[in-house]
Amino acid sequence: MVDIEARREELAEAMWRVIRRDGLERASVRNVAREAGMSMGALRHYFGTQDELLAFAMRLVIERARGRVGALDFSSRDPRQAVEMVLREVLPLDAERRAEAEVWLALTGRALVDPTLRALRDESYDLLQGLCGWLVGVLVESGEAGPGLDVDLEAELLYAVVDGLAVHAVVRPERSTAEGVAALLAHHLDGLCRRA
């Protein structure tokens, strides 16, 4: 028996490969079906339109990041390390997360003119912004960051840093290497923990 959800994920991953290799404009149903090794008719059994496939591909990026963060074990970490560990999961620091970030950036561009993708983009950014706010709160509550810290301001700054690091790692990988991105994140968190 075919696992429909697994097959849909395989097709979304085929779309990711086409987007990364050939660009978003070449991610047609025909090209994605060819990449997945199936007919266009078979692909349409899982996705009626290219727009449905694009939306699912974008949703899959969100769900993969959420799944990684949700699977983390914080029990043996101090709060500062735990915060860094969470944020590393949403940055393109390995091949898997880099692929997700490249696809995300391509689809975010299309979200300017596609209301469905725009809603997914906004949902994702709201999740990241909320996560940053929660993580800054964790640092304050644990005593890692000073109680006088402006949590809202620092959360917004952390959100901008994480988002900027992700974009730079995709757009200028030769300059913003995984090691460099991780070091900048650590430096920002160290500074945040010193501020009162």
From TrEMBL:
Top-level taxon in the UniProt lineage: Bacteria
Domain HTH tetR-type: 5-65
DNA-binding region(s), chain positions: 28-47
GO molecular-function terms, A-Z: DNA-binding transcription factor activity; transcription cis-regulatory region binding
Keyword Transcription regulation: yes
Keyword DNA-binding attributed: yes
Keyword terms: DNA-binding, Repressor, Transcription, Transcription regulation
Protein name: HTH tetR-type domain-containing protein
Organism listed in the record: uncultured Rubrobacteraceae bacterium
